[in-house]
Write a structure and sequence with these properties.
The complex is a heterodimer. Chain A is an all-alpha fold. Helices cover 72% and strands 1% of the residues of chain A. Chain A has one domain (3-270). Chain B has a two-stranded antiparallel ribbon with strand order 1-2. In chain B, α1 (2-32) packs across α9 (217-232), α2 crosses α3 and α2 (39-56) packs across α9 (217-232). The chains are: A mainly alpha, B mainly alpha.
């Protein structure tokens, strides 16, 4: 166990203490406030999922919202079937006579939970195999995933009889989990979401510190050299893409529970780029930082958009541009730099070259060819 | 048969608009490797500038073209100086930063002009249709097609027949050696970015009579233009032209066969497959990196 892993574990423990104990106390266990915060926590999962593929492996996935939307729709389909008697109402309006075959298995909760993870993972995996076998990298990954996102959203809106079209899936039943009917405005629901985020983050921290994560970082820095060492680069990229997609699907399921509807805007280009913003503001190199970034940006959005209704987006744009220009490693990068300076000052200028060499190389080396 | 010809014309009309938008993007991307996601917002600025010139100064679309070009080019020049210039060594980050710029421009317009859609009258001179048999072509769309070819030829002349173009191509091939020969690459970059932005402004002016002018109009356009540039090949003008014709015609014909949405989905799928097998585009330029 190296010191970096140790720091990450401490940070994770502090973060859990804050979201499990600090936040509910601060909001005086108020269900409405906690529901809002649960929304931020579910978005934190999709942000940390992007950090795994983007920050660790250098794959900028602009289509993260598509896999998020798949999870959201899987959960919404289950809840819609529970509230409707046989055929969901919107299908009747669209002249769909019989329940479509794809909808049938979503009667079962365990199938839904599995599908919410595995369908995004499978789709992400197919795109990844398709791209990475051909050694597509850099900007082209961004273009292909963006084009996929646009096509997928169009498809969901177009297939109105199956998906509810532009309206999405509304009027959902509450989820019943092993006899417990989930009230989304309750403290226990908040703990459910916080628990999911903790598990996702623990998985993310584990992956980034495993040998697997080390090889992913090597691929990010120089894919060719990693290939020359005998690693199958495409396989590593595909696996991390699948994991990231599955986590995004998980976040989508939680998001549907929080908001109690699923809408095609979850798969919009602007939502997908918003995920990139959260991740960049927090710091793409660390899953924890990316999650914190999502919480901070959404918290600010919730507070400030009441004050400046229109000005908020402008502010977000300005902050984002400044972050990209002057803090390319996000808040995380600033903290790492400050800690290193403090350590150097404490050692009285005595350079510990071995430890410096272990610090992650900056994103600036993440170049195109 | 008539349906086919009319759809072909619709495709060509769409291709001409895509081409003018994509041309600026292709020149910027080809020169400095910057993917300018604010390009759609430059188009939007051009459209609003045309609207402002028409409703406050009484200028028609055609008379406004040079003014709009200059105004949007100036905005592009300022953005390049302030921001893009600092990010040349981080091409992936320019996607993010220019998208941020896009948000800022979009909100600035929404705050100052308002979110409701604005309408611009097309020029009187070009109203009406030209009919050849059953083929009905709007004169304004014919004009846009002709103008896009004019812009394409003009840009090609600029790149190959002028001193600026020679310097530009030198910088694209090898920035370091060009600087040794006394070419100020930073200045070349600024001018190129401004020129690309100006072209987007012209595209915005030209589409005002065809589309409604709203602050979010750029977002959809930039994705399409972006795909045209990638399909066409890095910085290739011919590539951008043929890719926009290909995508425009494919969209128009497939939309007629299936429906609008499915046609677009099929085109996007086709583009994904094309990029997979020809990641350097249809017409890759032979530059050494």
């Amino acid at each position: 166990m190296n010191s970096r892993f140790y720091y990450d574990l401490i940070a994770l423990a502090v973060f859990c203490a804050v979201i499990f104990l600090g936040v509910p106390a601060l909001m005086s266990y108020d269900g409405f406030e906690l529901n809002t915060f649960a929304r931020y926590l579910s978005l934190a999962i999709v942000s940390m999922a992007l950090a795994l593929s983007w920050g660790t492996a250098g794959l900028l996935n602009l289509g993260q919202a598509a896999t998020f939307g798949m999870g959201a729709y899987a959960m919404a389909m289950h809840l819609k079937l529970k509230v409707s008697d046989g055929l969901p109402d919107f299908m009747g309006w669209n002249n769909v006579e019989k329940l479509p075959l794809v909808w049938v298995p979503f009667e079962s909760l365990s199938f839904t939970l599995l599908a919410g993870l595995l369908v995004p993972a499978a789709v992400g995996g197919l795109i990844a195999i398709f791209m990475f076998r051909a050694r597509i990298a850099g900007v082209f990954v961004a273009v292909i995933t963006l084009a996929f996102l646009v096509a997928f959203q169009l498809l969901v809106i177009e297939q109105q009889g199956f998906t509810g079209g532009q309206n999405g899936l509304t009027g959902l039943a509450p989820l019943t989990l092993a006899g417990w009917t989930v009230d989304t405005y309750s403290v226990s629901f908040y703990y459910l979401v916080a628990g999911c985020l903790t598990v996702a983050l623990a998985l993310g921290v584990y992956i980034s510190h495993s040998k697997f994560g080390l090889i992913l970082r090597a691929i990010r820095e120089d894919a060719d050299r990693t290939r020359f060492f005998g690693y199958n680069v495409a396989t590593y990229q595909t696996v991390i893409f699948c994991v990231s997609a599955a986590l995004a699907g998980w976040a989508g399921m939680l998001y549907t529970l929080v908001l109690e509807f699923a809408s095609p805007t979850y798969m919009g280009v602007s939502f997908s780029l918003a995920i990139v913003i959260w991740c960049a503001v927090g710091g793409r190199e660390s899953v924890l930082a990316a999650a914190v970034g999502a919480i901070i940006v959404n918290l600010l959005e919730g507070r400030l958009s009441d004050v400046f209704v229109e000005g908020w987006h402008m502010l977000l744009g300005i902050v984002f541009v400044l972050v990209v220009m002057f803090m390319p490693r996000g808040i995380y990068g600033v903290i790492v730099d400050v800690v290193r300076r403090l350590n150097e000052a404490r050692r009285g200028g005595r350079q510990d070259s071995a430890e410096d060499a272990l610090l992650p190389a900056t994103i600036q080396t993440n170049r195109e060819r | 048969m008539d349906v086919v010809f009319n759809q072909l014309f619709a495709g060509l009309s769409m291709a001409s608009i895509l081409l003018i938008i994509a041309l600026g993007l292709a020149i910027i991307y080809g020169t400095m490797g910057v993917i300018n996601l604010a390009h759609g917002e430059f188009v939007m600025l051009g459209a609003y500038a045309t609207w402002a010139l028409q409703s406050f100064a009484g200028l028609g679309v055609l008379a406004a073209l040079p003014l709009v070009f200059a105004a949007v080019a100036a905005v592009g020049w300022v953005i390049e100086k302030l921001m893009v210039q600092r990010l040349y060594h981080r091409p992936l980050d320019t996607i993010l930063a220019t998208w941020g710029i896009g948000i800022i421009l979009q909100q600035a317009v929404r705050l100052s002009v308002g979110a409701e859609s604005r309408f611009v009258k097309g020029p009187e001179l070009l109203s009406g249709n030209t009919e050849i048999g059953a083929l009905v072509m709007s004169n304004y769309r014919l004009f846009v097609i002709a103008f896009s070819i004019f812009v394409l030829v003009g840009s090609w002349m600029l790149m190959t027949r002028t001193e600026f173009g020679t310097k530009l191509r030198a910088v694209i091939q090898n920035r370091g050696i060009s600087e040794c020969y006394g070419i100020e690459s930073k200045r070349i970059y600024s001018i190129t970015f401004a020129y690309g932005a100006g072209l987007a402004g012209i595209a915005g002016a030209l589409i005002t009579p065809l589309f409604s002018t709203i602050p979010t109009m750029g977002t959809g356009l930039v994705v399409d233009a972006f795909l045209v540039v990638i399909v066409g090949g890095l910085g290739s003008l011919i590539g951008a032209a043929s890719a926009s014709v290909l995508i425009g015609e494919a969209t128009a014909l497939l939309s007629a066969v299936m429906n609008d949405t499915l046609g677009r989905i099929a085109v996007l799928a086709g583009i994904i497959i094309l990029i997979r097998f020809r990641p350097r585009g249809l017409f890759p330029s032979d530059t050494r990196n």
